[in-house]
């Protein structure tokens, strides 16, 4: 029979059997087939700074990065990453031994978990979580233990007692994402301090996904977990250029940590992509040195777009959880008389000409995420205005 082996064994590794085509591929295809506005996948519809793009062109023309770059990343970028961490957060890293460049944050996550986990190790992650977390834990043979962020007074909050109760003798590491995708939650200083105390007390490794570090709004602030007492030596911090500079296709991410942890991650990473994004690494090095005015203007632009879409979604009848960070808004569809996010999102293109993502795909406990739907606001203002106009038809 076509597609089967002689033993009829499934072709896909059983660890990945639960992961089919991602919801992003399905919904993006639906956007194309219906001519809908795609507020599902999180990528901007405009490029980042012209001077950064020109830096990539210059690197290409000068022959920098057209061949294999160094395994850990080009020295200019590693130095720029270390300088960024020092300037922003007072974290000092040796660019030669404590910084590793990766093919985006997605590879950084995969390489870190493949490096640090043994089969049977438990990983605690805050649910809902970015879908690559579950797949990477599965590929490493680990067991994911979700701790669910729950709606409370207009945002999604972490229950610290639930987190403590989730730690067992089999827990190897905590996987922390702040600012948090998809809920937009930014963990507070008190919450991060409690996580740090728990990690030290139970001698846990911590992996922090901080790709939205420059997208925090209102009174929130981004505080790297590595800055807390006892955490620098046990934390692998993951960052990325894609979200900060709006060049998501370049796939330039990084890891900062101790020499021992970075060496472990590099041992796994070298057998994934080996190296990637040569010329773009030089451009990102220049991007990280942009003045503070760039980062402020970027944040203010996204804040205005957040408010535009949040107001429109509220008028359309959604309950809106206004995000403190990232460029996603989570909504509750129950005020619209709906309760199944999958069915709602699959019907929304025909109903309103807009595509969104059902949050349930980010949950192990699917029922906990069933009524929640995520919209991206990292689009041009006129696109968001048209989406809002279309969505208001739902209120009728």
UniProtKB/TrEMBL annotation:
Top EC class, one word: transferase
Pathway per the UniProt entry: Amino-acid biosynthesis; L-lysine biosynthesis via DAP pathway; LL-2,6-diaminopimelate from (S)-tetrahydrodipicolinate (succinylase route): step 2/3
Quaternary organization: Homodimer.
Necessary cofactors: pyridoxal 5'-phosphate
EC number(s) recorded for this UniProt protein: 2.6.1.17
Descriptive protein name: Probable N-succinyldiaminopimelate aminotransferase DapC
Residues covered by the Aminotransferase class I/classII large domain: 37-391
Keywords (A to Z) from UniProt: Amino-acid biosynthesis, Aminotransferase, Cytoplasm, Pyridoxal phosphate, Transferase
Record keyword Membrane present: no
Record's catalysed reaction(s): N-succinyl-(2S,6S)-2,6-diaminopimelate + 2-oxoglutarate = (S)-2-succinylamino-6-oxoheptanedioate + L-glutamate
One Pfam match: Aminotran_1_2
Major place of residence: cytoplasm
Coiled coil: none
Subcellular location: Cytoplasm
GO CC annotations on file: cytoplasm
GO terms classed as biological process: amino acid biosynthetic process
Gene Ontology molecular function: any one: pyridoxal phosphate binding
Family recorded in the similarity comment: Belongs to the class-III pyridoxal-phosphate-dependent aminotransferase family.
Function as written in the Swiss-Prot or TrEMBL entry: Involved in the lysine biosynthetic pathways. It catalyzes the transfer of an amino group from L-glutamate to N-succinyl-2-l-amino-6-oxoheptanedioate (N-succinyl-2-l-amino-6-ketopimelate) in a PLP-dependent reaction, yielding as products N-succinyl-l-2,6-diaminoheptanedioate (N-succinyl-diaminopimelate) and 2-oxoglutarate.
Key word Amino-acid biosynthesis present: yes
